[in-house]
Amino acid sequence: MGLVKLNDLPQLQIADGVVARVVTAESVSVMHVQISAGSPIPEHSHHHEQVVNVIEGVLELTVNGVKHNLTPGKVMVLEPNVVHSSKAVTDCRVVDVFQPVREDFRGTSFAGYSQKD
Amino acid sequence: MGLVKLNDLPQLQIADGVVARVVTAESVSVMHVQISAGSPIPEHSHHHEQVVNVIEGVLELTVNGVKHNLTPGKVMVLEPNVVHSSKAVTDCRVVDVFQPVREDFRGTSFAGYSQKD
After folding, report:
1. pLDDT tens sequence across B33-42
2. Which among B4, B53, B74 has CB closest to A30?
3. Does the structure's ipTM exceed the value 0.85?
4. Are B92 and B58 a contacting pair, CB within 8 Å?
5. Do A16 and A60 touch, CB atoms closer than 8 A?
6. Which tens digits make up the pLDDT trace of B56-108?
7. Could you tell me the CATH superfamily of domain A36-103?
8. What does each C-alpha distance from A2 to A33, A61, B63 come to in angstroms?
9. Under CATH, to which class is B12-104 assigned?
């Protein structure tokens, strides 16, 4: 797909205070996320492997009930179907990698995390 | 594999002025790269899909002979086997995503880009 300008992609509202632009390649989705301080993402799971890369800020990520404070330099690898949630301690900039592609992120809106897939 | 501290990973010398820490998940490799201004990565190709995310700086990326100046907000998706090279216009911080896993990045050193794979 070549060159992608993030601002040309739809801005997805992932949760209150959580907005993202998602680059959908052939085999992976790369999500550029901005999270406002204090904003939570509720507990959820999905069949994709996920790699969470905090670029700026502090993100409290809870994995199987265990809290981790992610900062730049700490990367979380989430196995498929693991239950996780997060809360931004500060404003955060995050790059999330998913494999396989997140089909639910292809559109112009996101249905939300009320259900597990 | 859970939580990974980048500083606990081997620092790979990708080229002169190009150092990286690579998170090897099950299905993808996520490479956190620091490139010094002026440093080139020679022309090469590989069978992995690659997504180039410039976090800071300006990276001149040449794809099939066409030059692109990547800055934060511009993401390049490279199809498998496409020939590419780069030169850092400024100091750069880059997150590269590869699928499948880069087996050649698993070790404590990197053999270099003198050969195509």
Report:
1. 999 999 999 9
2. B53
3. yes
4. yes
5. no
6. 999 999 999 999 999 999 999 999 999 999 999 999 999 999 999 999 999 89
7. Jelly Rolls (2.60.120.10)
8. 21, 32, 9
9. mainly beta
In contact, B46 and B117? CB cutoff 8 Å: yes
In chain A, which residues have their Cβ closer than 8 Å to the Cβ of B59? none
3-state secondary structure (DSSP) of residue B75: strand
pTM of the full structure? 0.96
Bond prior to B40 in cis (omega within 30° of 0): no
Dihedrals φ, ψ of B53, to 5°?
Answer: -115, 105
Query: Tokens 């990520």 map to which residue?
Result: A61
Residue of B7, B26, B27 to mutate, testing the A interface (most A Cβ within 10 Å of its Cβ): B27
